[in-house]
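User: Could you go from structure to sequence for me? I need the amino acid at each position, not a summary. C-alpha cells:
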C-alpha cells in the first residue's frame, strides 16, 4: 500500500507541477458576480455604478470562434508559398483548456495578444482580397508596409467558413513599431494604419452594425455607442444629425473615441507597460485594478460584453443587449499574465548629464507629492474641475481634494465620466508620444510651454471636432521655470 501511495503521490505532484517542477495553475472563473459587484466606479451625475451582465448570462453565452490568425503582408513582400499555405490552412484554437505553468501562461498570452482578432469585423468580401493582393490598388488606398513587410493591424483568419480578413484586437491599439523595426507590445501606437484598416473600424460596416444594434441606422448605432442622455445638453445628440461630418473629428494615431467615451471627448490609448502596479483602469478610473482578474474582466468588457446600463438608462436595444460571443477563462488569464509581464523598451536617455539637475528640481518643486517614486505615481485620484464627490463615494480614501485643472469634459460629460482623473505614472513618459488624457500634446517640451494655456494655441495632438486652435488647460506646475531648468527637468523625466 505504501508503494502504491507513493506512486499516486508522484503522479499527483507531476500533474500539479509538471516535468519542470513548476506549479501548474488553473485559469480562474473570472466573470463572477462577487467581484463585479463593487468593481466599477459610480458615474458622475448619476452616482450609480454601470451595470454588468451577470455571471450566469456571461457563461451561458457561446464561446467565440477564437482561432490562430496570421499576418497580412504587403503585396510582393510575403514569404514564398505563404498565400498558398493560407488557402489550405484549417482553423486552430488560439488556446486550449487546462492548467499550465506560469511561464507557459505568459508565452501563450503573448500569442493571444498578437493574434486575437475581432470576430464581428471579419469579412469574406473578395474586394478586400483583391486590394491586398494588388500593390497598386493598395497604395491607392494609402496602404504601406512595415519594415518586415507586414501590414499593421490586419490579420488573415482561417475559419470554418473559409479564409477571412480581420482586425487585431489587443495589438492594434496597444503596440508600437520602434525605430529599429521591432514591436513593443503594450506601448501606445503612433502609426495610423491605412485605408483598408480604416474600413474595418467604420460604424457603417454590416458586422459592426449587427454586433452593436441589429436593424438600426449607423447614426443611431453611433448614438448608442457614445450618448450620455443624463448629461444636460449632451453633445452626442449631434451624432443623429445628417449634417455631421465624421471626417472633421481629426483623430490622430493613438487617440480614439472608445465605446462609452465620445468622438467629441476621446481618450488616448493607455500604456499597458507597468499596469500591474496601478490601482485603477482608464484615465478616469472607471474600474478598480485589484489583480489579474480585474484586467481579465476589463478586456472582456471592452471586447465583447458591455451591457451599457447606467442606472435607468439602457443604452442598447433589447436586440443589442446580449452577448454574441464570450472569451474562455484560459484565454483571458493568459492575456492578463502576458500584460503583467511587459517591460519597457531600452531607454536611450539615461546618459543625459542634465538629468541630475532635473532630479533636484523634481524634488524641489514637490512633484513627488503626486508622482512618488519608484512608480512615479501615488495611485491617487484628482477631481475634475466642477466635481464634488458625495460623502459616501466608495473611492473617497484615494480621492485627493484637488483639481489640476485639465479639461473636465471626459470626466463629466461621458459614460466614462467618474468626475475623477488618475494621477498618471511618469515612468515611460519618454516613449508614449501623447500627453494629457486626450493626447492634446505630443512632447514634454510642449507640455511645459505656457503658450498652451492660450485660446489661440494650436495643439500638436488631438484638437477636436472642427477645431483648429484651442487652449490645453491645467497642470500648470513647472510652466514658470526658466528655460534651463525646464530643459533639466525634461531631461530627468525622459530617464524614467
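Assistant: Here is the amino acid at each position, in order:
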Amino acid at each position: 500500500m505504501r508503494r502504491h501511495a507513493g506512486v499516486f503521490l508522484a503522479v499527483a505532484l507531476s500533474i500539479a507541477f509538471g516535468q519542470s517542477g513548476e506549479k501548474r495553475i488553473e485559469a480562474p472563473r473570472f466573470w463572477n458576480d462577487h467581484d463585479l459587484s463593487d468593481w466599477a466606479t459610480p458615474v458622475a451625475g448619476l452616482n450609480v455604478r454601470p451595470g454588468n451582465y451577470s455571471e450566469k448570462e456571461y457563461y451561458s453565452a457561446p464561446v467565440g470562434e477564437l482561432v490562430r490568425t496570421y499576418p497580412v503582408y504587403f503585396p510582393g513582400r510575403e514569404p514564398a508559398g505563404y498565400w498558398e499555405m493560407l488557402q489550405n490552412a484549417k482553423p486552430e484554437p488560439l488556446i486550449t483548456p487546462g492548467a499550465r505553468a506560469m511561464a507557459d501562461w505568459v508565452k501563450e498570452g503573448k500569442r493571444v495578444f498578437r493574434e486575437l482578432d475581432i470576430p464581428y469585423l471579419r469579412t469574406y468580401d473578395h474586394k478586400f482580397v483583391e486590394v491586398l493582393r494588388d500593390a497598386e490598388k493598395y497604395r491607392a488606398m494609402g496602404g504601406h508596409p512595415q519594415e518586415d513587410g507586414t501590414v499593421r493591424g490586419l490579420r488573415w483568419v482561417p475559419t470554418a467558413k473559409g479564409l477571412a480578413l480581420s482586425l487585431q484586437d489587443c495589438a492594434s491599439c496597444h503596440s508600437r513599431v520602434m525605430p529599429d523595426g521591432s514591436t513593443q507590445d503594450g506601448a501606445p501606437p503612433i502609426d495610423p494604419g491605412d485605408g483598408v484598416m480604416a474600413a474595418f473600424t467604420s460604424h457603417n460596416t454590416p458586422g459592426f452594425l449587427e454586433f452593436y444594434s441589429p436593424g438600426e441606422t449607423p447614426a443611431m448605432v453611433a448614438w448608442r455607442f457614445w450618448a450620455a442622455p443624463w448629461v444636460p445638453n449632451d453633445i452626442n445628440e449631434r451624432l443623429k444629425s445628417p449634417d455631421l461630418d465624421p471626417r472633421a473629428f481629426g483623430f490622430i494615431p493613438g487617440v480614439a473615441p472608445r465605446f462609452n467615451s465620445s468622438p467629441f471627448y476621446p481618450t488616448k490609448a493607455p500604456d499597458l507597460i507597468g499596469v500591474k502596479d496601478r490601482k485603477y483602469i482608464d484615465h478616469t478610473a472607471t474600474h478598480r485594478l485589484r489583480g489579474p482578474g480585474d484586467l481579465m474582466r476589463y478586456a472582456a468588457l471592452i471586447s465583447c460584453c458591455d451591457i451599457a446600463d447606467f442606472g435607468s438608462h439602457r443604452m442598447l436595444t433589447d436586440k443589442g443587449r446580449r452577448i454574441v460571443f464570450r472569451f474562455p477563462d484560459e484565454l483571458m488569464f493568459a492575456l492578463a499574465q502576458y500584460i503583467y509581464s511587459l517591460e519597457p523598451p531600452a531607454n536611450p536617455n539615461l546618459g543625459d548629464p542634465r538629468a541630475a539637475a532635473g532630479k533636484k528640481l523634481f524634488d524641489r518643486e514637490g512633484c513627488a507629492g503626486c508622482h512618488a517614486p519608484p512608480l512615479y505615481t501615488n495611485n491617487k485620484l484628482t477631481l475634475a474641475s466642477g466635481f464634488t464627490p458625495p460623502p459616501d463615494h466608495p473611492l473617497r480614501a484615494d480621492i485627493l481634494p484637488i483639481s489640476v485643472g485639465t479639461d473636465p469634459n471626459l470626466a463629466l460629460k461621458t459614460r466614462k465620466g467618474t468626475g475623477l482623473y488618475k494621477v498618471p505614472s511618469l515612468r515611460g513618459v519618454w516613449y508614449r508620444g501623447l500627453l494629457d488624457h486626450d493626447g492634446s500634446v505630443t512632447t514634454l517640451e510642449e507640455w511645459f510651454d505656457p503658450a498652451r494655456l492660450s485660446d489661440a494655441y494650436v495643439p500638436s495632438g488631438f484638437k477636436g471636432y472642427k477645431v483648429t486652435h484651442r487652449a490645453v488647460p491645467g497642470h500648470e506646475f513647472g510652466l514658470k521655470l526658466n528655460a534651463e531648468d525646464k530643459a533639466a527637468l525634461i531631461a530627468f523625466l525622459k530617464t524614467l
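One structural detail worth keeping in mind: DSSP finds 18 helices and 15 strands in the chain.
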